[in-house]
Amino acid sequence: MSRREQHQMSKDSARRRRYKSEQKERRKLNRQAMVTSVIFCIIFVFMAGFYLNFIVNKSQDIIKDTHNERVAEKAKTIIRGTIYAEGGEKLAYTDTNSTEEDLSDDTRKYPYGKTFAQVIGYSTKGFTGLEQRCNSDLSTEGTTEIEKIANDFSNTTVSGCNVYTTLNVKLQKEAYESIGSDKGAVFIMDPSTGAVLTTASKPSFNPEKLDKIWDDISTDNENSPLLNRATLGLYTPGSTFKIVTTLAYMNQHKNDYNNFSYYCQGRALFHNFKINCFDGHAHGSEDFEHAFANSCNSAFSTMGDELNLKKYIKTVNGLLFNEIIPFDNFNTSDSNYCKKSRFVLNENSTQAEVAQTSIGQGETLVTPAHMAMLAAAIANKGVLMKPYMIDKVENSNGTIVSQAEQTECKKLMTKSQAKQLQEYMSAVCDYGTARIFSGSSYEVYGKTGTAELDKNNNVNSWFVGYAKKGKKQLAIAVVYENIKDGTISAKECAKEIFDDYFK
């Protein structure tokens, strides 16, 4: 091979080595670019997901936050909207004594004063109730962006959106008055739609006089007049909880619960404790219906003791215990709208704890709202409709900004179980502990309860159930808080409300 050919081969070899080196470097750079691209793609997807989650789940909470300064500043240029009842009555509105340049003289009016105080709330001293829940609607125009810009440029004073609720003035007034001078609450809803018609609570306050009475009521921990007891009050349920124990027993004895029999001697004896029936009354031979109608503690504590505890807990949690029930499609994390009912039994609970819990004593705590919802589900063939209080929101031009939809919340029991519970609750009102309803012009289905609070005959008095006449029906929960046993009963309050509504 000539020297020239050798030189050429050497040059070709060097060229190939250089090419391979360049290829290797290029592949290295491509891998780095790919890794960088993947990292940026992951970051982009994460940011897009975070933004989407914020828009879908968080944005409305931020907008509705009464501490949001942008909303607060915007509200100063807008006449706060009106809150209406189901029948068109004004529950809260703004009295415009101000000029267009200064809205500071505007005052919020509450025509029904104490009657709707907790549910409607107030917009001074902070925000509560519907004034808080609907703050962004009440304090914004609800118009298009072009209209907003036009209003800003023209310096026109505009009105916030108006909120139309499902609250029934007549029912609310009757419920509030029926509680009398005691502490208590009434929660009423339509079982077929989920519309909340009444949330009455006593003691109460006049929201128009808030500045004058604030120092007194805000520190009154004994009476807690600011508390909406209907949705935020937690109470020992007493025998109304036997509805839950009954359902648990039915779940575990699907084919033979109708064969249940018990001979009540006025007390049930366990290893190291006993459960007494009311006043030690012996009910004698009972089937399931009579045990339920008589509210027999002996039968139900024995029943609870026989249940599979793990399955019992599963049934109770399936009835929305230990979770927040959503209202009006608001974020369910907002526990300031409706408290969780609390059920604390676990697989290590003692026999005494299970027996006490099965009759509604022990550490179980419920809200009147939740108990009314259980009654509503029984009335509605086992299905709880999602409770809602806001029917629609309109802007000042009458354009609907949002409209409630009637949707199912959850199926709490089967249709056959609901029908069976209806029969048991009818027996309560026919010949049982709520026979005060016997002979009424409407059908009543209910369960009474007397939750013992101490050894001094202080109790919570309960009535949970529903009534219907023709196409009209109401699900209700009534509780009297910490009263002397025998002084007044929740079933009497419920009867007054039903009598007035169905007359």
TrEMBL record:
UniProtKB keywords: Membrane, Transmembrane, Transmembrane helix
Any single biological process term in GO: cell wall organization
Species for this entry: Eubacterium ventriosum
Coiled-coil annotated residue ranges, if any: none
Chain intervals with Basic and acidic residues compositional bias: 1-13
Protein name as annotated: Penicillin-binding protein 2
Superkingdom of origin: Bacteria
Keyword Nucleus recorded: no
SUPFAM superfamilies recorded: beta-lactamase/transpeptidase-like (SSF56601), Penicillin binding protein dimerisation domain (SSF56519)
Occurrences of domain Penicillin-binding protein transpeptidase (ranges): 184-498
Any one GO cellular component localisation term in the record: plasma membrane
Ranges of residues in domain Penicillin binding protein A dimerisation: 80-163
Keyword flag Lipoprotein: no
Annotated region described as Disordered, given as residue ranges: 1-27
Pfam families named among the record's database cross-references: PBP_dimer_2, Transpeptidase
